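Can you give me the bound-state structure? Components:
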Amino acid sequence: MEQVKVCILQSDGTNCDNELFYAFKKVGGSPEFVHVNELRDKSRSLKDFDILALPGGFSYGDDIASGKILAIELISFLKAEIEKFKSGGGLIIGICNGFQTLVRTGLLPFGNLGKMDATLDNNDSGHFECRWIDLKSEKSKCVFLKNSYKGHFAVNHGEGKFFSQPSVIKKIEDQNLVVFRYVDESGNPTQEYPENPNGSINAIAGVTDPTGRILGMMPHPEKFVDSTQYPNWRRETLRQAQDKPHGLFIFEDMVNYVKEDK
Amino acid sequence: MIHKVRVAPRNSKIEKRDAFKKVKVYRLEGISLEDTKILAEKVLSEELTQICSIDKQLVKEKVIEVAYKPGVMNPEVSSIMKAASDLGIKLLAADSSYEYVLPINQHNLYNPLTEYIMEEEPETLVIKGVPGKTEIVPLRKMNEEELLEISKDKLFLNKDEMKVIQNYFEDLKRDPTDLELETLAQTWSEHCAHKTFKAKIILDGKEKEPLFKRLKDEALKHDKNIVSAFVDNAGVMDFYDGWAINGKAETHNAPSAIEPYGGAMTGSGGVFRDVVATGQGAKAVVSTDIFCLADPNMDKAKLPEGTLPPDYILKRVVAAVRDYGNRIGIPTNNGSFHFHDDFRAKPIVLVGAYGILPKDKAQKGEPRIGDIAVVIGGKTGRDGIHGATFSSGEMSDRTISVNATAVQIGNAIEEKITFDAILEARDKNLITAVQDLGAGGFSSAIGEMGEITGVTVHLEKAPLKYQGLSPWEIWVSESQERMLIILSPNNLNDFLKICKKYNVEATEIAKFDGTKRLQVFYGKEKVGDLDMKFLYGGLPQRVMKAISPRHSERSEEYNLYPSAMPQDDNGWIKLLEKTLSSGDVNSKESILRLYDHNVQGTSALPPFVGVDMDGPTDAAVIKPLLDKPYGLIVSHGLSPKKTLEDSYEGTIWSATEAISNYAAVGGDYKEACLINNYIWPFPDPQWLGKLDSCVDGVVDFMKALKIPVISGKDSLSATYRSSDGIVLHSPPTLAMSVFGKIPDVKKTVSSDFKKVGSVIVLVGKQDIRVDLKVLPKVLEAMYKAINTGKVLASHDISEGGLVTAIFEMCVGGNCGAFIKVESGELLLETAGCFIVEVENEETANELFKGIPYKILGTTTKDEKLSVEGLFSADMKQLQEAWSKPMKEIFGWNR
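Here's the bound-state model for the whole set.
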């Protein structure tokens, strides 16, 4: 069987790379750590990979703005390589700091590398949040997510408020680029804190690009691929639901999509 | 030429809600206006949410600008330089700061130790300077008074020690260099040499063994799990499958008292480095934070001069843990707060860290002749000079002005990449030993590593933050985020390649040479030459007098009894609200939500669980190897109030509380190791007597449980003196940390009640003084009971007593409880006791046969906490009182 090769991109301050590696491995992917310097000096190349995954963390300390410095680095040195990877059918996922980076490169939401159309602003709460929230996926352009899902996800960020001008938000909604929203107990998108932990417009938690091959999201699916990663795994009412940890499907769907595509 | 870019939020909600408006200012030196425009647009601002100006004011109002003092490291600068360079723009220098719009109503807007109000535009951001010359100190001709004068404020050595040094140089027929004196002062400082713990103790006229020897001798009797104890930067114990786990806890009190943000940050950074610099390198997997402070609402008039308000300290230490721990990606999963007004001058900031490493790389290799030392990570600056000697001295109102350089600001990312490089190099077998550059800087780290072979150092090679440092300053600087790697020269090239990949600067600085001397050069000039034997063996053992604590000080009124029991529901509810809202007991959830506790994906029991994830847990359970079920359990216990009252009983209580937290989640106490930290007032005979009985308590505790202390630290400077004669002693504190292993994290339990109608059991002997004979049996029963899977929930009784434990379990379960107990038992803080939830009474009888236990009642659907015959309290109301105090300080948009 063919391997699905995943490039876990590291830079100064990446810190969710191990759990992301583990998540891809668990669903049968073949992840490898690649430092951005190795792409810059061309000792390694994206052409050897099927999936490019940008993990969470504080790339370059999130100085100036979250993901900003890494975004500039990617645009300055890897623009052609990323364009080629994209047009060659590669999939890209950015989680938390990875999402912030993708938005600041312009890859999300409209695939305009080098032009920012949206941003991830400071949380309305005014500070970093580490908590669990409910997330629901919806029918979107995203090519690899098969079904709609609802589940518990961890959020760990200070700058996660998805924001843009109303006209841009409308365009994102009209093109079905919203993949995930923060929802309340009954499953409806919410602006209430802390269910919506950052005040994102229209409760947007994750988006794709017009090709549907790039996914960016603030919550961390890779932090719930084993049952014991969820704080309440001991509570009986949840044991049933946890036969499949809630974050796992994203990695399964991605890896399976690549396999079917090959 | 410097261009200024100003950036502010564009009418966002945040700006309106802010108590004050601020504008970010970037200064960019050595580039054209066109390039400044490019940087402003592409890097420094985002049009969607921000407004921006170049070389002109952004707001109409008057502003004041607060910037880091020149020379204080601003972590953002390297990112600005990098982004500019990636865009092909060559900056000469950069800086960032804030303009605050006047008028502002904000206390403590900045800390004058690290920041200043910028009134004059700087001509350049480049710090220039000519290195000072190495001075010869005319020590040989000094009299006693003169010796003490140069020791004060700088060397912190006593008369006898100064004389030993004088004699050494008399024998050599020369005077020392400033660098040599500094080397001796920091190597012989209390911080590095633990002179009190190694001293001969004369207690009430009778000689007793040194404190350290008592601890070590007892600990090594229980060596089943010990991989290394008392020899490395952290204690190491056995784990599973060829892995070992290590742990360390360390205070950073002195710097935190005067600059809490920088102090607590570098406290975190330092203890993380200790864990990573164990053996040939470990991965840090979890951290703990313990703070002892004065009540944040304390009357500010009571603050001694030269000290900071406790609410400011509280906010800043929390911000530091958040900013350092979150950025470096080490989860903060366990901690506590303890309030006592006598902490107002010298608070306790105690950070713990735990790691994992291959067992066969858990020992440091001994440097061989020809091996080299490479410094990696941050550059060396003037920051942190005299940290080791400073933290060993008493604090006074002169501390802030004299020791300004002892405070540093941390850069978590620099430390993170350094760790990344070390772990890759370790796995490629390139490293002989890793040493942390902490207290005492190069002097301490290189000296210690070269003690056996001897070492030659070339200080001029050390990468500097700015020019102008004298050789002795480079030598003892405690600049953060630096590590020393010892390796064979054959491995150097491969090692440098790894460093380059991670953007880590690496420079060879010393060579181990077989001379058995410490020889330090600055270029061709020899600036220091000391015999290793004298440096590490010359310090005279202290003989210290101690007076044993008077028996009457062992108070009978040892627990939190209210003097009169309330008579009705209302009276009880008031008392409960008061207890639950008190500093040591109230909910810290608002704080914990600021800390990342599931980065690395390893948490199997976070700080809060339950239906609404607001029920506090007892210990952290970490699954450090994602693909294995093995658990690392981490907990701690301390009670400054109790050790103040009775240093022996308080110590036993603290240690029992620590191991009970560990046992409450299902840990097997026999598979645990201990870390002890002593934070004590300056050891005069009275305080030393109390310290002596505290150490005896720790030894007795090890004896009773047959488990060892394998690491620890003492900080014996919790005394403050002001110029007008005010002396303030912080409460003496023994903080016990516990870490251990469990083969399957699924065999652990949480504190939230799981069901309605299940049985609530009290397990353990309700004794005001802990019965060390019964304790191991109770702990064993708890482990076995939880291991059967029949315990639905379990929580340890600690501050706030039995009723608080049950209350917190109800919070987690969104349920109530109906119990039957005597009124006097409700608030008893009996360590070594547990509240346990089981299905029914038969299960309780089966699980706890043979040890003290009793059935208290049942869980209820009705969300009320009721005690038969006494009161019935609404959970919502109690919960409001419990969560309010910290929410007011740290909640939404605070």
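A couple of observations. Chain A touches chain B through 61 residues (CB under 8 Å). The longest strand of chain A covers residues 129-137.
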